[in-house]
Amino acid sequence: AKTKARKKGIVYLSSIPKYMNITKIRELFSVYGKVGRVYLQLAENVSEQDGKIKKHRKVCAKTFTEGWVEFESKKVAKQVALLLNNKQISTRKKSKFYDIIWNIKYLPRFKWIHLSERLAYERAVRKQRLRTEIAQAKREANVFSHNVDRSRKLRRMQQQDETSIFVPPVIKQRDTDAEIRSRKENDLATDRTGFLKSLFG
Fold first, then answer.
1. In this structure, what DSSP letter does residue 49 have?
2. Domain containing residue 26: CATH number
3. d(CA 68, CA 132)
4. How far is CA 171 from its chain centroid?
5. DSSP secondary-structure letter at 72?
6. I want to staple 9 with a disulfide (CB 3.0 to 4.6 A). Which of 74, 125, 157, 164 is the partner?
7. How far apart are CA 182 and CA 85, in angstroms?
8. Per residue in 122-139, pLDDT tens?
9. Each residue of 162-183: pLDDT tens digit?
């Protein structure tokens, strides 16, 4: 008979202390049972101070905001959450984690695929937000460029107005029907007078 596959359990860390990383997490939790996958959410806005490489450290310390730890045994995951939640991470006074407590919660019916789906969704949202911000920035740049060009044209026109006298063009208005009839009658009368003069001298 096939042995029943052991159900895995996942615990959630709502906060990750500074200088804590995946290697350290795995080391600390492996004391209680076999650890599977570990994921720590990298902080989006890492301060410049965190990003600087310190003289006594070869690599800069990354900052994480939250994390998920998978245990090969669901029972162990539950026990770890009960045992460590709100407990001091380290009892050694010289430890970086001496004054920090764990914030751990066991996630019932939560599988790693749920985390993968959530992360994929968040990546898609971030990508869409970035595209929107880029499009907005392009629109603003185009408006600014248009306004600059318009301002230059207006300035050029003003300079031209200052150096030259503007002469308005003469626009001939169209004759009215009455004026056209009157002119035709005058022309006809003139022609008739000329004709009579030519006959009678």
1. H
2. 3.30.70.330
3. 30
4. 56
5. S
6. 74
7. 108
8. 777 777 777 787 878 777
9. 666 656 666 667 777 777 777 7
